[in-house]
Amino acid sequence: MGGCFSDVRGGKQAVGVGLTGTTMSPIPTSNAKVNDAVDHFFRARGFQQLFTPLEVLSLSASRLRDRDILSKSDPMVVVYSKKRDGTLEELGRTEVIMNSLDPAWIKKITVAYHFEIVQPLIFHVYDVDTKYYNLPVEMLKLNDAEFLGEGSCVLSEIVTKQGQSLTLDLHNRNGNRGLTNLGKLTVHAEEIVASRNAIEVKFHCSRLENKDLFSKSDPFLRISRIVENGGSVPLCKTEVVDNNLNPIWRPLCLTMQQFVSKDNPLIIECFDFNSSGNHVLIGNLQKSVADLEKLHEQKTGANFILPSSARHGHGKVLKGQLFVDHFSEKQLYSFIDYVSSGFELNFMVAVDFTASNGHPRDPDSLHYIDPSGRFNAYQQAIMEVGEVIQFYDSDKHFPAWGFGGVTNGAVSHCFNLNGSSGVEVEGVQGIMAAYASALNHVGLAGPTLFGPVINNAAEIAGQSLSCNSRKYFVLLIITDGVLTDLQETKDALVRASDLPLSILIVGVGGADFKQMEILDADNGCRLESSTGRVATRDIVQFVPMREVLAEWAKLCSPSCTRRTTWAVPDLHEK
Fold first, then answer.
1. 3-state helix/strand/coil string of 106-147
2. In 14, 123, 280, 362, which residue has its Cα 20 to 30 A from 532's Cα atom?
């Protein structure tokens, strides 16, 4: 088997494992997911629904071009929708699979299906250089990757195909002539069925066969589902446990969208990880979710089988066994579930007043107030998030702070934006007015510290929780710089991870925001405090403002809800 089913940690990271690893919604996510908060807002006011049923696309390829000299290509797929004017809009990216010309990607791409509209899709396959393995795929610059081939089709072609699978011939970009045998790409579509049901399961193995010569195997599990045409679609993989023949993996979560029904057969394969991507099969077995539940109840193991090389051989039963240490069924809740059950969103905002923003009177400053009325990046971020969340806040009184500025002759890392003793302002326009006023009397200073602001927000959320209030708090932090208190911020976030609080960090300007990606923890690694405590959940979402600006002019497109997708957190695991 070639392939590392991840784009970080050289392929050792878990992929698609849900609640206890990378975040997973009841609906698989991509850049093209529908924002249910925005849709709920429009439908509640009698407007037409903004989307139709979603299709989730699974991708695999065969006979790709080998662009590496000492190994094989390390492919990734980028999926685009083609608009009427011929421009391409990115819908999502798969993970990178190491050293494989026949990859099967785990990460799915979600597309809103409009049966009355022709929806052209473009698929670009790239070979990613090994030096970029530790970067999330969303941060990869495609100009730094080698182009392997392009495929195209119309979404309805996939949906109406027998088995909803379509195989495309890959060709040169934009159909240019040249090399024609660039491999094939298979796209499998499944309609997303709304279901809150999910399972959480924890595996361990015993007495695995050792595949390494000078050490022990480094095992991981890959779980796939058998589909109607007899093939299989990979659902997830666990993290790699180094040098261990009796590995214990972290718990993982599978949604009903993934496993379809408790009686549907799943293929569980155990591999010995190799950094080259040529992972060695230790053994496999076939079990349904119902079977896994029985293994847990009976506290028994299931033996792995090593498939026979003969076509109709029975395979060898191995001593190595798979055990289910934990099995539970869960309900995953969406944003709409929280709102409709009486939860109220409370919006808070904190604005960066450090000197790196530039003097507010300088037209190049990030804080420059344009006399023409054109918003700067800070104003745009406040409006983008506030416009969505204010509809779910009954009193529309929002705590608003500044940090890194000089007030009353001293640098403050958390001061009231309105300059008074009261922390709250009225409405989004109140935030905008307080921000504009603060620029006239607050001096820009530094350094950039998040800890005090997060602690203040956490104190408000904690007080609400102690009063049994049905409130959920969203703190927007807008910043331009590199953190000075990274560990203190981690400590504050870990403490806050038990509270009804999510934090949206919007980065403005062209600074290096790698630290924000660390706080975001989208790679599945929960934040750890200086005392060793691990965060209960990931409460941070980071978005560079340049990505928001790229969506600013798309209000009239079918994907207009993407403009605020980042603005409201997924609350199903909150």
1. CCCEEEECCCCCCCEEEEEEEECCHHHCCCCHHHCCHHHCEE
2. 14
